[in-house]
Amino acid sequence: MNRTKGDEEEYWNSSKFKAFTFDDEDDELSQVVNSLRDFVDDDDADDDLERVSWSISWSIKETSSNSGSNHEREQLKNRNSFSSYAQLPKPASTYSLSSFFRGRTRPGSFQSLSDALSDTSAKSYAPELGRPKGEYRDYSNDWSPSDTVRRLRKGKVCSLERFRSLQDKLQLLEEAVSMHDGNVITAVLIFLKRTLSKEILFRELEVRQVALRHLIHFLKEIGDQKLLLDLFRFLDRTEELALTHYREHLNIQDPEKRKEFLKTCIGLPFSAEDSAHIQDHYTLLERQIIIEANDRHLESAGQTEIFRKHPRKASILNMPLVTTLFYSCFYHYTEAEVQAERERKIPEKQYVLTALAARAKLRAWHDVDALFTTKNWLGYTKKRAPIGFHRVVEILHKNSAPVQILQEYVNLVEDVDTKLNLATKFKCHDVVIDTCRDLKDRQQLLVYRSKVDKGSAEEEKIDAILNSSQIRWKN
Asked: What are the boundaries of the signal sequence (predicted)?
């Protein structure tokens, strides 16, 4: 496009934008910042510039096309491209307008606006130049205890180091407790734990039960057993002191050292019930150590059949009582270990259930039968199951017991409906047929006849019963 010399001078010396100074009102710079959008051709440029309100005093002084010096006009004439837009007049400060948008300074030289807008290596943002005056109180450390607690409750970062005297620290704790916020109370307690001696901290918390409970819970969560023991010792809480000391055995991995530690716990001031548990724990671990050493030797020797057929999958050390009982019933059923475990006040139902699971897994049906066989004072034997024969049947079936074994125990179920359901479920045909015959239920027998195989012995048995003239059917 051809221009005359006059038109070209008018083009370069006129502008719809104002240069900025530091004398005018705040909102004028906002207009300039928002007008920078017109310099960008990309549609995505709106994402790079943010509309902001400036809270410090900037001013813009319009430059007249007639008041510029000849030297300035010559500089304007040398700018031949809109894409490489001229740098703004250099103010006395070392900040450029583009550097404000980049959040950095450029001493000595300035980045052009076009470079600033095309530079994607850094995130563009508008600086927060004017914060409310109150926010700067964070840095002057002039928050009161109540203000500090309120800010902590809102999740704001506050330094507690300004509270140096004991009175200020206790006032801060009182404010936190009155706020009824556990997180704030714990935060203040962590500060007090770090800045006060144990004696002073324990003494002050003794009369502040809410804060004391929070500290005890916090120490348990972080596992600070030493400080917790000192606290209980100071408060003269002997039983809690003993329980906390006993809990330390969980951190001892060596079985012998754990056994010796448990031995030291026996004499601690537990309640009567807890003392019995501690004694049982010590005795159990002592027995487990003996069994483990013996079985490890037998297994490595390879001369014991049960260890060859069923190798051990894990050590028995530190296992619960029921697991130890199952292990003994599995590997040492006929030995003294089982009797020793049975003498540990194990309920009869628990013992029968565990022993049945162990012996059924080995398919030792003779041992299963002996487990439920009892004799009366006259020498007569009968079957008795403390856990109920319906549970016995379920466990036997789970361990793939033969149908003959299942039928024997299904017949011992007292409830008729339960017996029929179990017999039908596990295909104990003789039990179903005999039960229907005893109930004189012809209709149910006919229904079951359709479920058995054609020409089988069960079908013949059903037909013989149906054709019998000695049975008076109910239907």
From this structure: none
User: Are 278 and 270 spatial neighbours (Cβ–Cβ below 8 Å)?
Assistant: yes
Percent of the chain at pLDDT above 70? 68
Cα separation, 127 vs 124, in Å, equals 10
Rounded Cα distance, 188 and 231, in Å = 18
CB atoms within 10 A of CB 359: 21
Report how far residue 469's alpha carbon sits from residue 62's, in angstroms, rounded to the nearest whole number: 126
Average pLDDT over residues 295-316: 90
Contact call for residues 346 and 325 (beta carbons, < 8 A): yes
Q: Is residue 409 scored above 70 in pLDDT?
A: yes
Lowest mean pLDDT among 22-26, 97-101, 161-165, 282-286: 97-101
Q: How far is CA 83 from the centre of its chain?
A: 57
Decide if 87 contacts 112 (C-beta within 8 A).
yes
Please give the Cα distance from 56 to 131 (Å, whole number). 10
Using alpha carbons, select from 219, 186, 220, 215 the residue that is nearest to residue 203.
215
Q: Rounded distance, CA 193 to CA 454, Å?
A: 84
